[in-house]
Amino acid sequence: MKISIFSAFYPFRGGIAQFNARLVRSLEKENEVSAFTFKKQYPNFLFPGTNQYVDEKDIVDKIQAKRIVSTFNPFTYLGAAKTIKGANPDLFIANYWMSFFGVFMGIFASKQKKETAKLAIIHNLIPHEQRFFDKWFNNFFLKRYDGFVVMSNSVKNDLLSCKPNAKYIQLNHPWYDHFGGIISASEAREKLKISPTKKTILFFGLIRDYKGLDLLIDAFSELNDEYQLVIAGEVYSNLQKYENQIAQSKAQSRIFFFNQYIPDSEVQNYFSAADVCVLPYRSATQSGITATSFHFEVPIIATNVGGLKEIIDPPELGLIVEEPNSNMLKDAICCYFENNMKEKFQINIRKEKESNTWSEFAKSLISFSKTI
Hints:
With 372 residues, the protein is of the alpha/beta class. It has helices spanning 15-27, 77-86, 102-110, 134-142, 153-162, 185-192, 213-220, 239-248, 267-273, 288-295, 308-312, 326-338, 342-353, 358-369, and strands at 2-6, 32-40, 66-70, 91-96, 117-122, 147-150, 168-170, 199-204, 227-232, 255-258, 276-279, 300-303, 318-321. It has two domains: 2-174 and 357-369, Glycogen Phosphorylase B (Rossmann fold, 3-Layer(aba) Sandwich); 185-353, Glycogen Phosphorylase B (Rossmann fold, 3-Layer(aba) Sandwich). Helix 3 (102-110) links the parallel strand 4 (91-96) and strand 5. Helix 1 (15-27) packs across helix 14 (358-369), helix 2 (77-86) crosses helix 3 (102-110) and helix 6 crosses helix 9. The mean pLDDT is 94.
């Protein structure tokens, strides 16, 4: 099958680019795949982080994607659609995670040949931080695709609320396997220059207000000296707020804040150092952090928002906190360590690994595409 896929790819960084690099590698084993990406994803003055692009020193999968569209330049939209059409795909796949992309991604689908199947992988449909144009842009996008892939009940419900007759398949988010293997906790903690013996809690990923880091810091501040907290990720909101909160915490000396984008080559250090990964989110759909944490066999404590519970709870891969509440988070962390739950959850994680592979995801996606 000839497949064209549009997404963030190298040289852009982040979870969507990582997801689609792994997907392309799985699809191209049995298909002819053409990858397309942005000329420019965000204008620099609107980008909340320090850099949209990977560091050339970082070890990443450099997917050779053709750069065809500038998000904020409508004059590039039709030309980009024509370029994708020129690849003559049997299947066109778009990755959707931001409503502002709805217009040009909708145009991409509408300009393909009639016989080309149009499939959208929806990472997020209803934004965590909503804007006035979200509904219109989402509808414009959804009307132009034949089928959809979702990876949680939360996104499925959002899809059906916007398009009740949508044809979709729900697949598990495959677990990431490109960050290297697990190293010893002692080696990882030495690299991070943290205590080799304390119970280690990890918060990982880009930091936005809806992710509830403030709740975790409050919860951690009530834990005794046996614990340490590692925060690893670039702040995409108010850095001063978190720095002030940490400075005022009585546990300040046991909080290690790595305010930076974590390159792929260093991810293994943070997860190998951790006893548990905490997702104290106020809202969510699914999270790529779960796919990374489970690859490193690190159990998760997460709030019951979006699709997190369905990923973690039924196979017992961690604990669910019913509300985004600092006291409840503290109690869950204490319960996890006091009852020595890590080993039990790790056994379950190892059992689940075999069914959450990229090859199985790609096979299911292709099979579904032939029905739309």
